[in-house]
Amino acid sequence: FGYGTPYYRNLGYIFKKDYPRVMSEPPKTFTAYKERNPVGSYRREFEVPQNWNGRQLFLTFDGVDAGFFLWINGEKVGYSINSRNAAEFDVTKYVKPGKNILAVEVYRFTAGSFLEDQDMWRLSGIFRNVTLWSTPETHVRDYFIKTDLDAKYENAIVDVTAKIKNYGSSKGVAQKLVATLFDGTKEVKGAKAEVAVPALNPGEEQVITLKFPVKNPAKWTAETPKLYTTVLTLNEGSKTTEILSSKTGFREIEIKGRLFLVNGTPIKLKGVNRHEHWPEVGHAITEEQMIRDLEVIKQGNCNHVRTCHYSDDPRWYELCDEWGIWLVAEANVECHGYDGKFDEEPTIKAQIIDRNVANTENFKNHASIVLWSLGNENGGIGSNFVAAMNAIKAIDPTRFVHYERFGIKKNNPADIDSRMYTSPDGTEKIALNDTAYTKPFYLCEYAHAMFNSMGAMGEYNDLFDKYPALLGGAIWEYQDQGLYNNRDPKHPIIAYGGGFGEFPNDKYFIHKGTVFSDRSPKPHYPEMKKVYQWIGITVEDAEKATVKIRNRFQFINLNDFTASWSLAENGKVISDGKLNLRELKPGAEQIVSVPCKVTKPKAGAEYFVRISFTQNNDELWA
């Protein structure tokens, strides 16, 4: 209410399909026939501190759906149409000390909407943070902190590239850029470097590089998400003019044949596709809600999330670094309703490249990201998407690129093979065929979690564990995307497509998660948790009461878990105890005796032996 009509659509545009126009007349049955292109107008006052005089001022919008004009103090500043990457404006010449007026005119549909045909609620407005911030005139505009492990994955080199620009109208002064690594609040011995920055002319930008070694840092993985902090300072003599910092995880990503490795170890991605959506707030999710998602995802034994099908809120990537998630970071590009049209279309090429570049530039310093994704369901191999892939690789040589629509053909230019919804039999055939397939294989969507579904989860994950060439997959999808319809405050309902009277819509297809919209578990959730568990337990010899324990973790042993057994008679525990395990390293197996015995069995009684593992220490997620 006040933000236009919510629409749910899986596939297809909610305005007339007439690229690049969005104001053409649709059928009269379309809600957009009357609501042709709603506009939201925002206006507020803000204060600029007096001590910001002589500094450079920027205004950043993290998310505005779908496009907007910006005015400050009555002057038009600019325009942006990418709804899910930062729109950043240099507003120095438009503001004054003290009170200022900001106005934003948000358009529901723009030419960019043709690249935003994702399977989700189509909502409108300013839904992420808006930040006013200032810097010195000579400013570290951008930086990329890369870590490179040696051949033994032991020691590291930190490689920092910084772009320093003089935004002022006069020549700057010579300065010094210093990079220092911290472990908590303690400076890491020897992990520091500095380099001279020459005096820059007005508008001049220089790329500055520096490196320093780090002796045997703790390595970042989704199982061991250890983070350091890299601090960059720009110094003018003894005066520090700017301080920036970034969390840094030490890890090396490689592909060797059909193996996808991190720190020399093949990994498995067992995860979900996660939309940014909660029923109370739509897409304007809070940090508290992000943390709740991580709790539910991690407690479900997931180690992986694909950011379907756009760039997420910047805070999400920071939290995934901290909590331990392997991310496939997808760009805000989906033109499913015009499938294939934009593969070669020259008028949209720059926009496809720009959205991928923005995704990479915004989040390149996050350890959790192991793959970039060019987008979702746009067509096949075309020059526009190959150009986007090449642009990503030019920015970031440390990671690899995924794009499912390139297919798994011989000429697939992406770094991994990927397909949606391949059957278990088909997945196994791909794993076994090393002649036709030469890359790791990833199911970016599988086990569509709608209605009474996901029954093949066990078969899929047995294959993931069995075949080294299978990287894993992401369930479609994590949560139902219901949205509260509060037309009757006394009886709010979780609505699906059509729940707001909108047309066209795709009805209940929005409800296909492992959990309900409020994150309470559906039957799919314990199924996922069981199948994804990282400790395998199978009966070895029933008569001898022995079980085989397998450590499926890739980087940790089982020392931090307690193994227990219990014997139940008709559902009531009659004896229990602990299992004695030797140290079980990643991938190792061990046969263990279970000291359970039914001395006086009851006629007709049912007995169960239960083996379970519990963590010994608190984690962020449990």
Salient structural properties:
mainly beta, four-stranded antiparallel β-sheet, 7 helices, 37 strands, 13% helix, 36% strand
Helix and strand arrangement:
Elements: E1 7-9, E2 39-48, E3 56-61, E4 64-65, E5 67-72, E6 75-80, E7 87-90, E8 98-107, E9 120-122, E10 125-126, E11 130-135, E12 138-149, E13 156-166, E14 175-183, E15 186-197, E16 205-214, E17 228-236, E18 239-248, E19 253-256, E20 259-262, E21 265-266, E22 269-273, H1 287-299, E23 304-306, H2 314-323, E24 326-330, H3 349-363, E25 369-373, H4 383-395, E26 400-402, E27 417-418, H5 424-432, E28 441-446, H6 457-466, E29 470-475, E30 483-485, E31 493-495, H7 524-531, E32 535-541, E33 546-551, E34 561-569, E35 572-578, E36 589-593, E37 607-615
Parallel strand pairs: 22-23, 22-29, 23-24, 24-25, 25-26, 27-28, 28-29
Antiparallel strand pairs: 1-9, 2-8, 3-7, 3-11, 4-10, 5-6, 5-8, 12-13, 13-16, 14-15, 14-17, 17-18, 19-20, 20-21, 30-31, 32-33, 33-36, 34-35, 34-37
Brief description of this entry?
With 622 residues, this protein is mainly beta. It is built from 7 helices and 37 strands.
What can you see in these coordinates?
- With 622 residues, the protein is mainly β.
- It has an eight-stranded parallel sheet with strand order 26-25-24-23-22-29-28-27.
- A hairpin with a 2-residue loop joins strand 19 (253-256) and strand 20.
- Helix 1 (287-299) runs parallel beside helix 2 and helix 3 packs parallel to helix 4 (383-395).
What is the terminal separation in angstroms? 38 Å
The poorly predicted ranges are none
Tally of individual helices: 7
Helix content: 10-25%
Q: Which strand order does the major sheet show?
A: 26-25-24-23-22-29-28-27
